[in-house]
Design a protein that fits this description.
The protein is mainly α. The protein has 2 domains: 10-204, no CATH class; 208-274, no CATH class. It has 11 helices and 4 strands. The protein has helices spanning 10-18, 20-23, 36-50, 55-64, 76-91, 97-135, 141-179, 182-204, 223-230, 234-248, 253-269; strands at residues 208-209, 212-216, 219-222, 273-274. The strands form 2 sheets. Strands 1-4 form a two-stranded antiparallel ribbon. Helix 6 (97-135) packs antiparallel against helix 7 and helix 6 crosses helix 8 (182-204). The longest helix has 39 residues, at 97-135. It holds the Pfam family EIID-AGA. Keywords: Membrane, Transmembrane, Transmembrane helix. It comes from Clostridium cadaveris.
Length: 275
């Protein structure tokens, strides 16, 4: 529910759900920060409206929303709605920028798990199955039905998700601010955000060290198996920490990508790393 002093209208939220940034959430995807540019584009007009008389506040908000972001694209407007309400609170001095970043980070993992299961693992498979079965018989409805079955639910989720996110921001975040629950929410969001990054480090940053330490019968003990016995994903987490440290030292991300490729090729050539 929009409050009387809100600068954002329902039309603004609807436009955000279907603008170029929202619909192009994967078009500007990159390895460094993934969907950050599209998210900033999606919410840019709302930021201009919220910080109409505060140029520095607008610049800080843009920089804030160029941080790492990755989510099932259909759920991005929901996060955008929550962020829009929090940016209004930020403009009034009720929350700080770190609170907004913490909420975004906390929502990425859970919503992506739900969204990927629904849209990628279920809905798309059903739509493709129906479309292909019709197309194989020469029926022109095959590609048309695929397009409709996949996109109609997606656009419905975008629309209602954006408005629900904005309403949640006003109805619940402001109440939490008044009764002192906001600090607890932000602490929980920060913890969840750290857990999400930790899980991503294990599942998305991986390698296998092929150094053999010995053999018992036909079973070969490798350095990788020893490390996995101590803590699975140790190499991925260590690599993430190293890259984070290098980024803080202002090392160019492109150099890190090229360096990773070189280390991988050399390591595979000499048998130190395995696929």
């Amino acid at each position: 529910m929009k409050t009387s002093n809100s600068k954002i209208t329902k039309k603004d939220i609807t436009n955000m759900a279907f603008n170029q940034g929202s619909l192009g959430m994967e078009f500007s995807w990159n390895y460094e920060r993934q969907m950050h540019i599209s998210f900033a584009m999606m919410i840019n007009k709302i930021l201009k409206k919220v910080y109409k008389n505060d140029e520095e506040g607008y610049k800080e908000a843009l920089v804030r929303h160029l941080e790492f972001f990755n989510i099932t694209p259909q759920f991005a407007p929901f996060v955008g709605g929550i962020v829009a309400s929090m940016e209004e609170m930020k403009a009034r001095g009720e929350v700080d920028g770190e609170a907004i970043s913490s909420i975004k980070t906390a929502l990425m993992g859970p919503l992506s798990g739900i969204g990927d299961s629904i849209f990628v693992g279920c809905l798309r498979v059903i739509a493709v199955g129906i479309g292909i079965s019709l197309a194989q018989t020469g029926n022109i409805l095959g590609p048309i039905l695929y397009f409709l079955l996949y996109n109609i639910p997606a656009f419905i989720v975008r629309y209602f998700g954006a408005h629900l996110g904005y309403d949640i921001g006003f109805n619940y975040l402001q109440k939490m601010q008044q009764n002192g629950m906001m600090n607890k929410l932000l602490a929980a969001a920060s913890i969840l955000g750290v857990m999400v990054i930790g899980c991503m480090s294990k599942d998305m940053v991986w390698t296998t060290i092929n150094i053999q330490l010995g053999a018992v019968g036909e079973e070969i003990t490798t350095l990788q198996s020893v490390l996995d016995g101590i803590m699975p994903g140790m190499i991925g987490l260590g690599g993430t920490w190293l890259y984070y440290w290098l980024l803080k030292k202002k090392v160019n991300p492109i150099m890190l990508i090229v360096g990773t490729m070189i280390v991988g090729i050399i390591g595979a050539y000499f048998g130190v790393l395995a696929g």
